[in-house]
Amino acid sequence: MVGAPPDEPTPDRAMSQPNTFLGLTRAEAPWATARAVIVPAPLDTDPVTTLAHGPDAVLAASRRLETYDEDLDQETIDVGLHTASALKFDGLDPEAAVKAVANSVERWLARGKFVLVLGGEQTVTLGAALAHLRRGRRFGVLHLGAQANLQPLHQGREFGPSCVGTRLVEAGLELTGVGWRSFGRVERRSMARPEVHPWVMSDLDPAGQWVDAVVDRLPPEIYLSIDLSVLDPALMPAVPRPVPGGLAWEALVDFGRRVFNRRRVIGVDVSGLAPIAGLSAPDLVAAKLVYRLLGLAFPGVGAA
To answer: Cβ neighbours of residue 207 under 8 Å, at least 6 residues apart?
Structure first.
């Protein structure tokens, strides 16, 4: 009998953990039978943001969601959605934190689970992508966000949110960016690299013709990384660096649907929520997005 992964609590401790996606106890969504696992990764290397509280805020908000997805006409909860124990980053430098994410994700992948990582800052993307590389997958990364994150270093360090894209490309991955609208001159030059396919916000026509054009360029297998800053700040103000413009909800979910329909999505992360005290709407938007992405990963499950 396969034992619980090393980062899992004992059954008694698991039952006492209050904050899981949709409020499901681990008895209601045991890891052994779940098809999808949500890994909270509250990584935040910037002490002035509230990103470390993002995963908890999403999990708490998810309790207020309807389990029936009206757009997909299905009860995605029937997939079996297990929430893993939140990763601990106390005392870890950014490189060690990336390895911790990679190790956790790889353990779940070894058990045949679809993994959605819930950040924290976007540095978690690198760890998750490395886990899939360790499994021998050939894939590209599709990154949606306001920032390109193609700096050579982050505050003088090799690992951090502003250089995630650079590290992904150095790992041999093709990187497609959508919604980028905040980047420096060095990053603009990096976009000319053959492995980088940028679709900056000004490239996205209002008629939506960009959607199929982007999907047509994607490789057959994709790791999807969504920083919530890709959304218009009017809808998602709870990010560390809001940038005017951005995608509307409808544009984001329509694009997500096309990607899942036409490409094999091997994993997902959603990051960038910096909760604002007294403002719960962004937390709900993030939770709804997570649930929608899981529904797209398992179409037709629990269909009415």
So the answer is: none
Q: Within a domain: residue 166?
A: yes
> Any idea what the CATH number is for the domain that residue 39 is in?
3.40.800.10
Residue type, 231: L
Residue 36: closest CA among 24, 52, 44: 24
Say how many CA atoms lie within 13 Å of 67 toward its Cβ. Answer: 16
Q: How many folded domains does the chain comprise?
A: 1
Which residue range forms the structural domain that includes residue 288?
11-297
Q: Which distant-in-sequence residues (6+ apart) come within 8 Å of 10 by Cβ?
A: none
Average pLDDT over residues 40-62: 94
> Does the residue 303 lie in any domain?
no
Distance CA 181, CA 242 (A): 11
| Residue that is written with structure tokens 């920083």 in the block | 227
Cβ-based neighbours of 261, under 8 Å, separated by 6 or more: none
Could you tell me the maximum CA-CA distance found in the chain, to the nearest angstrom?
54
Residue 10, class by beta-carbon neighbours within 10 Å (0-12 exposed, 13-18 middle, 19+ buried)?
Answer: exposed
> How far apart (Å, rounded) are the C-alpha atoms in residues 195 and 214?
14
Q: pLDDT tens-digit profile of 124-178? A: 999 999 999 999 999 999 999 999 999 999 988 899 889 999 999 999 999 999 9
CA dihedral 169, 173, 176, 179 (to 10 degrees): -50
Q: Is residue 6 one of the residues assigned to a domain?
A: no
- Is 4 inside a domain boundary? no
127 strand-pairing partners: none
DSSP string across 78-108: GG-EEEPPPP--TT--HHHHHHHHHHHHHHH
What is the reported pTM?
Answer: 0.93
Q: Decide: 297 and 36 in contact? Cβ < 8 Å.
A: yes
